[in-house]
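User: Fold both of these, please.

Assistant: Here is the first one.
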Amino acid sequence: WDLEGVPYNGVPLRLVGTKLYGCHQGKDKSVRAKEKYRAGKEKQMLEDHAFLKGNRQVQTTKKMNCPVEFTVKHIVRFPGFKVPVALSTLYLVLPFDPISSI
């Protein structure tokens, strides 16, 4: 019931999912696909009877290796099952003895 950055106030909570977001000018994740596409185009231009228009790209990518990333955590709280804070800390302090509970 303890998540980093989420204060516990006695209401049980559950982590449903996480999502990692990055800057649109971050690391280029499709470098290999672009190289493969460019190599295919160059090969096709060298073949006989290839009537493809050769456009020169001034800017190949807008990516600048921006390191900004952040994580969003989706949590669900269950207010119908609220536990008093004093009781919840008591259970954290009490030792659990599995033999005496049998």
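And the second sequence with its predicted structure:
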Amino acid sequence: GDYDKAKVLHERGLRIMEKHYGEDHVEVAGTLNNLANVQQRQGDYDKAKELYQRAIRIKEKHYGEDHVEVSSTLTNLANVHQCQGYYDKAKVLHERGLRIMEKHYGEDHVEVAGTL
């Protein structure tokens, strides 16, 4: 895909969302996650981690630390650590995300399978 164009559009969207909702609003977290995905695909892992971590902080503040909305961003952050070779950190984040999913859906739910 055209990641440079996607990055510009997500950065623009982030500015609009922050202006409208404020920097720590839960709606901003989704845009942060999308921008982080682009940064990750471009190989800018440090920026991706920063954006995912910010999104996680916002989601935890809004939903709580063990909410399913937090889980998906934890998994994304784990994937960045894995790309960088930080396997221990990635494992911890993946396991936390999995625990949240199992708590929310149950161990044998199809949503949990996607986390495995």
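The mean pLDDT is 94.
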